[in-house]
Amino acid sequence: MGYTYDYPRPAVTAACLVITEETIPKVLLVQRREEPCKGSWTIPGGLVKENESLEQCACRCVYEETGYNPLFIEQLHTYSEVDRDPYDRTITTVYICILKRPSLVMGQGDAAQAEWFTFQTIPTLAFDHKEILDDALSFFRFHLEADLEKRKMLDPASIPGWGASLHPNGENDEGYSFDLEGDEDEFEGDEEDGTEMHEEDEMYDDELGDIKDVLNSGVDGNRDKGEKGFFASLKRFFKK
Fold it and tell me: Which one-letter DSSP state was computed for residue 86?
C-alpha cells in the first residue's frame, strides 16, 4: 500500500495550445462534452496520470480530444492561481505547438467538437483560458520575431560574440570549422542584380507584418491593461 499524505493535494493538469503559422493564424479549441462548463470552449487538456509526464499528458489530451497528435511542443507557462478553477484547486502547465497550416480535427472523447478559430472569432472561453490565450499571443509574436531575425543573418561572423570566439584558423572553441568566405551566393543571392535576397526579405517582412497586425489586436480586440511580468514585457516589446 502506498504512502498517504495527511494534507490535501491540488489537481495537476496539462494543456496544449495548437496555433498555425499562417498569415491569418488559427488556434485549435475544443467544446466540453461534460460538466463543469459543459458546452463551453477550452484549450485541449486534462488531468495528469500517475504514469506520465506533463508533456505526455498534454500531447495525449490533444490527440484524445481532436485526433491530432502534436510532435513538437514547448512549455508556455504554469498557472497556479488559487481561484483559477472555481470547482477545484487546479494547477495547469500549458504547452504550445506551432503548425504551418491546420490539420484535420474532430471532436472526440471529452470534446463534443474540435474546431480551428481565427483570433478574431474566438468564442467565450471557460476558466482562465482567455488569459492563457493572451499569453500565447505574446509567445507567438516572439517566435515570429525570432524567426525573422534568423532569416536575416547573412554572415555568422556578424552575430555579437560569435565572430570573436573564432580562432584565426576559422575554428571555434569546440573545433568546428566555418567557411565565412565561401558559398556567398547562398547568402546573398544573385550577384548580377543583388535583388533575390532583398525581395525575399521584403515579402517575408510584409507577411510578418500582416500576422503581427492580427495578433496585436488580441483575442477580442481589447487587450487587458496593467499587466505585469514576463508576458507583459513581451507585449511592450512588440508595441515598440
Answer: T
- Name the helix (H) or strand (E) containing 234: helix 230-239
Sign for the CA dihedral angle at 99, 105, 108, 114 comes to: positive
Under 8 Å between Cβ of 53 and 87: no
Beta carbons of 32 and 111 less than 8 angstroms apart = yes
Tell me the mean pLDDT in the region 128-132.
93
| Residue pair 58/140 in contact by the 8 Å Cβ criterion | no
Q: Is the pTM of this model over 0.70?
A: no
Give the tens place of pLDDT for each residue, 43-90.
999 999 999 999 999 999 999 999 999 989 999 999 999 988 888 899
Report for 18-22, 89-93, 223-227: range of highest mean pLDDT: 89-93
Strands (E), the chain: 11-20, 26-32, 41-42, 45-47, 74-79, 90-99, 111-118
CA distance 217 to 214: 6
CA-to-CA distance for 44 and 114, rounded, in angstroms? Answer: 9
Residues in the chain: 240
Q: In the Cβ-directed half-sphere of 224, how many Cα atoms lie within 13 Å?
A: 13
Superfamily per CATH, domain 11-149+209-239 = Nucleoside Triphosphate Pyrophosphohydrolase (3.90.79.10)
Give the pLDDT of residue 57: 97
For residue 214 the three cell numbers come to 492580427
Q: Give the DSSP letter string of 110-174.
A: TEEEEEEEETTS--PBSTTHHHHHHHHHHHHHHHHHHHHHHHT---GGGSTTTGGGS-TTSB-TT
